[in-house]
Amino acid sequence: MESERIILIGGAPTAGKSTVAEKLSKHFGMPWIGTDQIREIMKGTVTPEERPMLFHSRQFTAEEFFKKYSADEIVQNEVAESEVVWPGVKAFIDNEYSWHSFIVEGVAILPHVVAEYKDDQKFRTIFLVDRDADRIRDVVWNRGLWSSAKNYPDTVKEREVEWVIKFNDYIVREAARYGFQTVEVSKGDQDMKAILSTLS
Known about the structure:
By secondary structure, the protein is of the alpha/beta class.
């Protein structure tokens, strides 16, 4: 891979963004960072009054949150939070001088926010999609999304599966709208072949 290449990886939770970023990091010899890390740094520099969407879910228990919001509303919340995180991610991308080539992955990589980079040859952007309910369910029940799976009740976990599937649908629609490639993952060996082919 030629010098100065930035790979952006978006997609819904459980799609395998971090796993793919780690594999690509080893394949290309490039460092990587997650937008979750950038979000946590941002949380340490602003107040809930300044950026309420960064702290939105903190006021709820898992049961309260999933009782209050529908799956569609949770997708809207995720998009809104990602839009708040994006300026921090963009600042990292535009001002990271020590890494000439690197990978950024995370939910905050959304088609409409990264569209500004679409015609820049230095960038390669892909969106991972996994709408397999059983695979999503396995991650939710064993790892958890709200927090560690053991820290909140199974009674709300099916709601997480529901909104993650809807978020995948959102990514597919928006990627098509802005002309980005999606890769339907199966969590098998063929995934990396498809991802490398798309990036090339």
